[in-house]
C-alpha cells in the first residue's frame, strides 16, 4: 500500500488490484466493486478530510442511527470512456444538487462540492482501468451517506459517513418488462420523501413489488397516493407514454424523483421535433388509448437502464399489451443519449464533463 497526502485528500492505494479476477463480459449489475472507495466523515459539526482507500467492509456500532431510523441517502451516476481513453461524467452537477436536496430532507448535513466532486474525480482517476471503452460499458457510481452516530434515540445523528463506491456495468437489459399499475400501495405521498433518494423509499417498494413479481410483472408503476388515478413513476425510473406521436410524462413533484435521464430525454425529444407534454397522465387515458389503438409505447427512464421499454400493463386485473412499434421513440432516444454519453456524437447541450 502506498499513501499520498494532499491538503485536500489522503490516498491509500491498494497493494494489489482485483481487476484481473473480473469477467467484464459477464457482469451482473451492481455486484462487483473496484479497488478503491472514497470515505469522508462528518464529526463535531464539520466534514473531516476525505480519504480514498482500498475497498473493504467497515465497522459500525450496532446502535448507529442508520440501522434504527433509516437516515440514509444515495445517488446513482455513471462514468464513460471514449475512444481516446478520456473519461466522462454525465451532468454530475445534477447528481450533486439532488444528493444535497435529499440530505436536507433527511436532516443530514450537505456534502461540500469539493468533497463530492474532487473526491469522485480522484477516485475515478485511480480506478480508471475499470472503465472499459465501447458503447454499453460503463462504470456505475454510487455516492451515499449514512448516519453513524450512536444511540437508539429517534433524533437526527450527530455523525455521518459519506462514501463513493464504483461498480463496472454492462448495459442493463432487464428483458421484456410487464408492469402492474398500483391500485392500493403507494411509493410516496405529498409532504413525504418521494422526491429524495432516501434508502427507505426503495425498501418500502420491495413488498408490493414482490407481490407484482409473483403475479408475473417485473415492475409496479406507482400512482398518486390520494386517488391512484395519476401515473407517476416505476421502481427506479421515471415513465414516458407515447400516445399517437406525442410523448407524455408526469411533472416532477414532492412524490416523484426529478430524474436526470427524464429531463435529458425531454430536451432531446424536443430537439428531434417530438411533441412532449409534461402533465399529469391519467390511468384512464392510458386504458382508453390502449383500447383505441393510439397507445404506441411506454418506457422507463433512469441512469441504470437508460431507457427500458415496457411491453404491457395490467390494471384492475385486465392486461393491456402494447403493439410492436417500428423505429420507436424509446430506441431513438436511447441511441441519441448513449451516443452523447460515450462521446460518439457532439454534445450540443454541454452535459458531458471530462474527468
Ligand atoms: C425513484 C426513481 N425515479 C427515477 C429515477 C431516475 O433518475 P435518474 O435518471 O436521475 O437516474 C431513479 C433513479 O435514480 C429513481 O430511483
Automatic annotation (TrEMBL):
Coiled coil: none
Record's protein name: Branched-chain-amino-acid aminotransferase
One Gene Ontology biological process: amino acid biosynthetic process
InterPro entries: Aminotrans_IV, Aminotrans_IV_CS, Aminotransferase-like, B_amino_transII, BCAT-like_C, BCAT-like_N
Source organism of the structure: Flavobacterium gillisiae
NCBIfam families: ilvE_II, PRK13357.1
Entry keyword set: Amino-acid biosynthesis, Aminotransferase, Branched-chain amino acid biosynthesis, Pyridoxal phosphate, Transferase
Enzyme class: transferase
UniProt cofactor(s): pyridoxal 5'-phosphate
Amino acid at each position: 500500500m502506498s499513501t499520498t497526502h494532499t491538503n485536500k485528500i489522503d490516498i491509500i492505494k491498494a497493494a494489489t488490484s482485483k481487476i484481473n479476477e473480473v469477467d467484464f463480459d459477464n457482469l451482473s449489475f451492481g455486484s462487483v466493486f473496484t479497488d478503491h472507495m472514497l470515505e469522508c466523515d462528518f464529526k463535531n459539526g464539520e466534514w473531516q478530510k476525505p480519504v480514498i482507500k482500498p475497498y473493504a467492509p467497515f465497522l459500525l456500532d450496532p446502535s448507529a442511527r442508520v440501522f434504527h431510523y433509516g437516515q440514509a441517502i444515495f445517488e446513482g451516476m455513471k462514468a464513460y470512456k471514449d475512444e481516446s481513453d478520456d473519461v466522462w461524467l454525465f451532468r454530475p452537477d445534477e447528481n450533486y444538487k439532488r444528493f444535497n436536496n435529499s440530505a436536507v430532507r433527511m436532516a443530514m448535513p450537505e456534502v461540500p462540492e469539493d468533497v463530492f466532486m474532487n473526491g469522485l474525480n480522484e477516485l475515478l482517476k485511480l480506478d480508471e482501468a475499470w472503465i472499459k471503452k465501447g458503447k454499453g460499458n460503463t462504470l456505475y457510481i454510487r455516492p451515499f451517506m449514512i448516519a453513524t452516530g450512536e444511540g437508539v434515540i429517534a433524533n437526527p445523528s450527530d455523525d455521518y459517513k459519506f462514501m463513493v463506491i464504483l461498480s463496472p456495468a454492462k448495459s442493463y437489459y432487464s428483458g421484456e418488462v410487464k408492469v402492474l399499475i398500483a391500485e392500493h400501495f403507494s411509493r410516496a405521498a405529498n409532504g413525504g420523501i418521494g422526491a429524495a433518494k432516501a434508502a427507505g423509499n426503495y425498501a418500502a417498494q420491495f413488498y408490493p413489488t414482490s407481490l407484482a413479481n409473483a403475479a408475473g410483472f417485473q415492475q409496479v408503476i406507482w400512482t398518486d397516493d390520494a386517488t391512484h388515478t395519476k401515473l407517476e413513476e416505476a421502481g427506479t425510473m421515471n415513465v414516458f407514454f407515447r400516445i399517437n406521436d406525442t410523448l407524455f410524462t408526469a411533472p416532477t413533484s414532492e412524490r416523484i424523483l426529478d430524474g436526470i435521464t427524464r429531463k435529458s430525454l425531454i430536451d432531446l425529444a424536443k430537439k428531434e421535433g417530438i411533441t412532449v407534454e409534461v402533465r399529469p397522465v391519467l390511468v384512464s387515458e392510458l386504458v382508453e388509448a390502449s383500447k383505441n389503438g393510439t397507445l404506441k409505447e411506454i418506457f422507463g427512464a433512469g441512469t441504470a437502464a437508460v431507457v427500458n421499454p415496457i411491453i404491457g400493463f395490467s390494471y384492475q386485473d385486465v392486461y393491456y399489451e402494447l403493439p410492436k412499434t417500428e423505429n420507436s421513440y424509446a430506441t431513438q432516444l436511447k441511441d441519441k443519449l448513449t451516443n452523447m454519453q460515450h462521446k460518439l456524437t457532439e454534445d450540443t447541450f454541454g452535459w458531458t464533463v471530462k474527468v
